[in-house]
Amino acid sequence: MLLNRLDPTPKILVAGFLLATSALSACATSESPTPPLSETVTQTLTSQVSPEQQPTTTVERPPDTGAAAPIAENPRDFSGLEEVDSQRFWGHEQGSFPGFRFQTPSGNIHCHVAEIPAACNVREHAPWPREDRLPDGLAHVTPTAVGWMGEMDLLGKPGTWLQQGTFPATGVGNVLEYGQKISMQRSINGQSSSISCASREVALTCMINNGEHGFTISRESYEAW
To answer: What residue stretch is flagged as signal peptide (predicted)?
Structure first.
């Protein structure tokens, strides 16, 4: 009898509270943000592809042969270079061969153009071809000079030899700057002959008779024709 007389309101309040809590939980779950479709697809694909299967890009490089890079420009083409007065390089500073003397800005190449012989002395250089060696009696010694030694050689391909004595002269002569060229006239047995040289950073080139024969030299390169 006493229980029936109790007020049923607290039970009603508890039941209402539980219903409200369930409704709020359901709303919170339904209002959670849904990730975009593209993100879902990306995550799915990434999770299915292992690092070993990921695409890679390969860049192919030319093999390193250890050889010096070829000269891009034609060393026999003197066009576009500054012509300088050859008389600036005339002198009798050393030895019995008067003539034109000049050197490259690096000081590695010294050239001497006399009435008959004409040559350049190269202090440091890579090995030169054996077939271009002239009979100087010292074939076992590394040659240092390249050019034309005697009268018979002046009309053909230049050769190499070991500098002996005062020709070609070294340590004298004005500097032929990079980008400059010089043309020198000589008289050999009553015949006029010209020799031209061009100084570039990559190499020095000297030619006779408008390029019929000549040579291109540097520390790393050598060519004679």
So the answer is: 1-28
